[in-house]
Design goal:
Elements lengths: L1 E8 L2 E9 L2 E7 L3 H5 L8 E7 L17 H15 L4 E6 L2 H11 L4 E7 L7 H14 L2 H11 L2 H7 L4 H8 L1 H4 L18 H11 L1
Parallel strand pairs: 3-4, 3-5, 5-6
Antiparallel strand pairs: 1-2, 2-4
Amino acid sequence: MHTQRTIMSDGFALSVSIHGRGMPILVVGSSIYYPRLFSELLYTQFQLIFLDHRGFVKPPRALEPEDYTLDQVLDDIETARQTLGLEDFIILGHSGHAFMALEYAAQYPESVRKVILLNAAPTNSLERQQQSLYGFNETASPARKLQFEGDMALLEGDIQREPERRFVHMCIRMGAHSFYNYAFDAASMWDGVFTNMPVMDHLWGEAF
């Protein structure tokens, strides 16, 4: 079972992709990327509801800084929850989206049964990023580190060619840091995914 719909919140058209049946799990992030990342075996036990946030949506107007605060993102999630009629549900956040899921649950505890955090860090500060790279260099296999170094060497050229997709290029080139199969090329998983960089820059660079 797979359905698509659009939820309007503050002028933003947030796409929702719903897969499977069972206990609902609201997955915050991209309604395009995340269905490609999760195993379809989950759909036999759960209903996964993949929800865009406004960082993955074309803006309805020229944005001001107050349009992309974390609180605005949480308001969007709450609008989606009400529209979808979700009660006592699980919210899931992966990587940076874990901050959104955790903060939503803190603000709306009466609606959330559980929180699932995947590949989450306590902060996205520069110090934490450096610690993660240090841990990678200390524990990764030589082949994985070689793959990572080669991929990252291509990142600057990617960003120069498509600066508006620098978030996507960073995620792709970090593949050896992210996937069990360190040679996996995730580029196709990002096909058709729009990124609103002022929103992403604020959330990942400041809010988190």
